[in-house]
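Re: weekly structure request thread

Next one in the queue (371 aa):
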Amino acid sequence: MIVKKLIIKNYRNFKEAEAELNNSLNIFIGDNGQGKTNLMEAIYIASIGRTFRLNSENELINFFENKSSVEIYIEKNNYKIKIEILLEKNKKKQVIINGVKLEKTSEMIGILNNVIFTPDDMKIIKGSPVERRRFINIDISQIKPKYKYLLNKYKKVTTERNLLLKNYYTKCENKDIISIWNDYLVNTGTEISLYRNEYINKLKKAATDIYSSISGNKEKLDILYLSNIGCITDRDEVKKIFYDKINKNFNNEILKGISLYGPHKDDLIIKINGKECKYFGSQGQQRSVILALKLAEIEIIKEETGEYPILLLDDVLSELDNKRKSYLIEHIKDIQTIITSTDEHELNILTKNFDKKMFYINEGKISNISN
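Done, posted below.
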């Protein structure tokens, strides 16, 4: 899978910008605040359908405009694909693939797979369980289209079920239909848990090996799936445990007015040498874990789809020491990579043996740099 060209119009600080990309390495140099992360975000939204930053879609549109667009031209399995994202203030975004408008944004997931690495990824370790669930959900959705459908369905189920719980004693019919929503919760939640368990086992295997290599075989990484339901085994057993949790704690759920059990409460525990990285890992160790997770993501997507994803490195080299920089650069030779940085000199040294194109970003404008 290769991104050949991108065109951005009225997207954040970009009025109109275009870049034809190299099949291997693409480096975008610019000072802070010039649009480097905006560029990455535009590519990301053409892959996932939403931003990796916590902004409304109206904020993606240039302040002085009402409409914005992102066009990405890719080659995948010898096919040429054009992805268009059309944004208009206060309206639902449109996704168009080769001229055909999609009914749901989720239908685009898996067409352009990506792995993105940003300084904010430290939240996967340091942040709340929400950050780790988001990380897992995006990864699995790219390789298992049904998973995204299940997530959307599960969100609707928990919303409706919570409303029933809050008003359980005020409406007689709630007592009659709660069992139906319990079934929806258990059936959908069980499938999500099984998907997560399978993926996390693969992630653990790949990331553990990579981390061991980064640490010179001196440290051991461990990743544990902390399921809110309990031990994940086979489908029937998970459902049984799920129902038991609900039945035993139903009065407590009514009291609190929320669903207390299910994958919306899951978490990941990441350990180094048996100690939880969130609390006991050094900055260097935590960055090594993130690096291992991202490189593991790449390998899993390649294994599942037969093609490498594109790799987006948004100003992360400044966060890594020389050893980790060299390790990362060494492992991206077969992957189309887009890097943003403020330091042209350092990147030229690190990538001196790469086939690459270099660009300069200044005030939302992209220009080529002669190598």
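Residues 172-214 form the longest helix (43 residues). The longest strand covers residues 2-11.
Next request, please.
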